[in-house]
Amino acid sequence: NAGVIQTPRHKVTGKGQEATLWCEPISGHSAVFWYRQTIVQGLEFLTYFRNQAPIDDSGMPKERFSAQMPNQSHSTLKIQSTQPQDSAVYLCASSPGSNTEVFFGKGTRLTVV
Amino acid sequence: AQSVTQPDARVTVSEGASLQLRCKYSYFGTPYLFWYVQYPRQGLQLLLKYYPGDPVVQGVNGFEAEFSKSNSSFHLRKASVHWSDWAVYFCAVRNYNQGKLIFGQGTKLSIKP
């Protein structure tokens, strides 16, 4: 079990460019989450899939951010027209069920210059 | 609304001393509670979890936590800290209906030699 795999681990983009972050959840897990971590805001929930269906995207900025889960083995978080304030560590996580523990990947550090 | 409060942003203890990190939650119903640890430049690792049942739960590396419904608390304890415990600790509650984890702001633990 390799755990939740996130790629790339580090990404630098220029202001206005698009960034796509990838996540491979633990095999067999039905729930996938995306979080953003910054010093100022701490850990912020972005979005949540269950059995590939979007369940809760209440934390997603309405513009520029989108997440997809085209199959059970990967999810993507896309940020269009990146801005410096998007710089953060983006964490993907998965869980076997609704009330069980959640396992996190090591994160992707996004830097917008 | 559900929330988690960790009142101490920073805690410093001497190596070998006992430790308590505080966590207060606001949740309607019976919560599922977790403590995670984040070592420098790493992802979140699960320390322990509380599901309804025995209020004292044991975790990895000698950590334990006690759930109190009357105090709305889930404090983390360790009898004797080691320098390797130097990390940031997050308390979290999982929303039963929606499934997402709601985190506290974290407590940064430093160890004095």
What is the element layout, followed by pairings?
The complex is a heterodimer of chains A (113) and B (113).
Chain A: E1 5-7, E2 10-13, E3 19-24, E4 31-38, E5 42-50, E6 53-56, E7 65-71, E8 74-79, E9 88-95, E10 103-104, E11 108-112
Parallel strand pairs in A: 2-11
Antiparallel strand pairs in A: 1-3, 3-8, 4-5, 4-9, 5-6, 7-8, 9-10, 9-11
Chain B: E1 3-5, E2 10-14, E3 19-21, E4 24-26, E5 32-38, E6 44-50, E7 56-58, E8 63-68, E9 73-78, E10 87-94, E11 101-103, E12 107-112
Parallel strand pairs in B: 2-12
Antiparallel strand pairs in B: 1-4, 3-9, 5-6, 5-10, 7-8, 8-9, 10-11, 10-12
List keywords for this structure.
heterodimer; A: 113 residues; mainly beta; 7-stranded mixed beta sheet; 4-stranded antiparallel beta sheet; B: 113 residues; 6-stranded mixed beta sheet; globular
Count of DSSP H/I helices of chain B: 0
Largest sheet of chain A: 7 strands, mixed
C-alpha geometry of chain A: globular
Structural class of chain A: mainly beta
| Biggest chain contact | A-B, 22 and 22 residues
Count of helix runs of chain A: 0
What are the low-pLDDT stretches of chain A, counting only 5+ consecutive residues below 50? none
Multimeric state of these chains?
heterodimer
Distance between the amino and carboxyl termini of chain A: 35 Å
Poorly predicted spans of chain B? none
Question: Which percent range fits the helix content of chain B?
Answer: under 10%
Instruction: Please count the beta strands of chain A (DSSP E, at least 2 residues each).
Output: 11
Quantity of strands of chain B, as a count:
12
Binned strand content of chain B: over 45%
Overall average residue pLDDT of chain A = 94
Rg of chain B, please?
13 Å
- Mean pLDDT of chain B comes to 92
The rounded Rg of chain A comes to 13 Å
The computed structural class of chain B is mainly beta
Please give the share of residues in helix of chain A.
Answer: under 10%
The SSE order of chain A reads: EEEEEEEEEEE
